[in-house]
Design brief:
Shape: globular
Structural class: alpha/beta
Order of helices and strands: EEHEEHEEHHHEHEHHEHHEHEHEHEEHHH
Strand content: 15-25%
CATH superfamily of the largest domain: Glycogen Phosphorylase B
CATH class of the largest domain: Alpha Beta
Strand order of the largest sheet: 1-4-3-2-5-6-7-8
Number of domains: 2
Largest sheet: 8 strands, mixed
Radius of gyration: 22 Å
Number of helices: 16
Length: 392
């Protein structure tokens, strides 16, 4: 099959032979080489289908990775113009994707199966209006909003779509509220984590060393905030609530990328938290912070399912989450608590006080970890692949 207007990267393995008994899969993802959550899922699903014997074509705007691919995997790079890349990628995918299984990961409209890892943009805009004073005028003036909403509606309501995977019931309900989609089409598969025994079992040995390397006091109660884009992730709410805690024997570590990080550092100082908060910026490996922390706080204004939710639980941390993070669905009484009213500083303060009553101990961390054993990432990926192959 030839594809118009695209450049096919040469195969990394010269002996690729399709297995006739297994359906071909075309996987659509604008970015494949980045480290984001969508890209991680694209790679996991591509590898998973290939290991099941399915030939996999990956359509992307990225160049092929330099590492060897599975023999049944091929990378196809679609050249895009500088402007309108999202729409251009969608148009090129429609020209190329003709296989029995067309699996969408990104903002595309032409697929038989779709994992809506980005959640519902329409809901996100509603949340911004509530929490960020995001006016209808600002929304209208940003052409990207119009593009995403157009692609979102076409994708969810496409007659070609057989199965729509969401990573939380929260997102499923949002789709049903905003779009004309049959509930029977939607399957909820929560996010998962690599349950590495080594990383978890060593936290008792590593905590002191990590604290010394980060110049922190291991005797204090350690809150952890992880996320890029501090405004959407709710760091302002967290800082305000921390300033209200009667017990100041705590420290917050902030990890993640933020263009306006100085603004949040200034906010912490103005709230009298300069000695209680450290900003570490983006880190390739967050494991040391999990090993040090007692709890993770996710006060997001919108997260379909924050990956850090199950990552932290798998490392034995108590989790404080807003109800606008779909990951709260996997919390149990012994493993976390939900912020009832994110805009109310006292509500978040109460949730933080609950967390401080659950410092990380060996027994407690084991119990929390056991609560998400069923969410091992390999299990979640396999569940999606099984359902996809059942619904050809």
């Amino acid at each position: 099959m030839s594809a118009p207007n695209f450049r096919e990267m040469p195969s990394r393995s010269p002996n690729k032979k399709p297995m006739n008994n297994f359906p071909k899969v075309t996987l659509l993802t604008r970015h494949y080489r980045s480290r984001g959550g969508l890209e991680k899922w694209a790679n996991l699903l591509a590898q998973g289908f290939a290991k099941r014997g399915c030939p996999v074509d990956i359509l992307t705007a990225d160049a092929a990775p330099t590492t060897p691919l599975h023999p049944l995997m091929n990378i196809h790079t679609l050249p895009l113009t500088r402007w309108g890349k999202m729409k251009a990628f969608d148009r090129q995918c429609q020209k190329w994707a003709k296989s029995p299984i067309i699996f969408g990961i990104d903002r595309t409209t032409h697929q038989t199966h779709l994992r809506a890892g980005n959640g519902v943009h329409k809901t996100y805009l509603e949340q911004r209006k509530t929490f960020e004073n995001y006016s209808p005028l600002k929304e209208a003036l940003n052409p990207l909003n119009k593009t995403i909403l157009h692609l979102e509606k076409k994708a969810f309501e496409s007659p070609l779509l057989k199965t729509l995977f969401t990573n939380s019931h929260m997102v499923k309900n949002e789709i049903l509220r905003h779009y004309n989609v049959s509930p029977e089409k939607i399957e909820v598969i929560h996010n998962g984590a690599h349950l590495k025994e080594k990383d978890f079992n060593e936290w008792t040995l590593k905590k002191q060393k990590v604290a010394e390397e980060l110049f922190l006091d291991p005797a204090k109660y350690h809150f952890l905030f992880v996320g890029s884009g501090y405004q959407r992730k709710g760091l302002s709410f967290l800082l305000k609530a921390l300033s209200l805690l009667p017990n100041r024997d705590f420290h917050l570590s902030v990890v993640g990328k933020e263009r306006e990080i100085e603004r949040f550092m200034t906010c912490a100082n103005q709230l009298g938290l300069s000695k209680h908060v450290s900003f570490f910026g983006p880190r390739a490996d967050v494991t040391p912070f999990y090993q040090l922390a007692d709890s993770l706080v996710i006060p997001s204004i919108y997260d379909p399912f924050a990956n850090v939710t199950v990552e932290a639980l798998s490392m034995g941390l108590f989790v404080v989450s807003s109800k606008y993070n779909g990951g709260y669905e996997v919390l149990q009484e012994e493993s976390g608590t939900v912020i009832e009213a994110l805009q109310d500083p006292d509500s978040l303060k109460e949730a933080l006080m609950t967390a401080m009553m659950h410092p990380k101990t060996w027994v407690r961390s084991q119990t929390i970890r056991e609560s998400v054993k069923h969410l091992d990432l390999s299990n979640q990926v396999s569940s999606i692949i099984d359902l996809t192959l059942e619904r050809l």
